[in-house]
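Hi F.,

I've been meaning to write this up properly since the lab meeting, where we talked about keeping a consistent format for the predictions we share between groups. The idea is simple: the sequence comes first, exactly as it goes in, then the structure tokens exactly as they come out, then a line or two of notes. No screenshots and no reformatting. I'm using this chain as the first example so we have something concrete to point to.
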Amino acid sequence: MQITPLQLALIALGSALLGALALVGAFFIYLMYMGSEGTPVTWTTSPAPTTVSSVPPPSQKGKFVGTMGSTYGRFPDDARNKTLEEGPGKLVGRVTANGAPVVGLKIQLALNGAAMSAWAETNAQGIYEIKVPYGIYRVDGYMLNHNNLDEILGGKTDAPRYGASGVETKVSAETPGTAIDLVFVDAISVTAPKGLVGLDDHLVARWDPYPGAASYRINLTERASEGDWQSSRQLFQWSEQPKTSAPEIDLRSTKAQFKPDHVYLLSVRALDAKDREISSSGNRFSTYDFKMKGR
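Output, unedited:
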């Protein structure tokens, strides 16, 4: 019996349909088996496209402009790649910002000039507990996890007088050791000048007034271009840094000499009535505030 092309096409179509039905049946048998084993089976679908009338404003918290980590004295580079095993003892410290506990911040400690500790996370009271073996420890510094710094400490910087460690502490079954307490405060927000500035333009630096500040010291960091870190230099020595009681200063009245096509970063430190630093504009060295036009 001779099979016509139409019959061949129908046979192929039927085989394909039977194969698809067999595949669907096998899939449902698999789902029934997974359900019998106690494994939940969930269905997910992609949300339907929608339109919105507005979007939420960008976060106003800003970036963390404090120090991600530091060590005291000489902490060998190879020690940074070593992690001390956890133990039954604890080194306990606290992290606050503007007097309130900092929650969810991950921190590790540099210990005895020999190794880094395991990571710990601050709790609702801002307290962290580093698990270590019993013994004598010297906290040589700390490191913060950068993944959520902007979310947790956006707009903050280091308090100038936070307590550095370096003192030996004993960890035993009866007593935890004392770790480092970190304190952060609101950073000073620089508002002007920004962007491209003419060589002969009026040039006034401004920043938001800082609570409790009796005066301010400023400095300027100059670079030949945005990414040219090797050319960085500060325009004022410590004894020459301009000081003002107002949250602004005419930069043309200082000894600063500006160069065409160079970029400048303004640093501001707030001082109390006893001339003690209470805050700063922080570590913003990855950016710049203004650029001088070329001739």
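Notes:
The chain is about 15% helix and 35% strand.
The chain has a mean pLDDT of 87.

If this format works for you, I'll send the rest the same way.

G.
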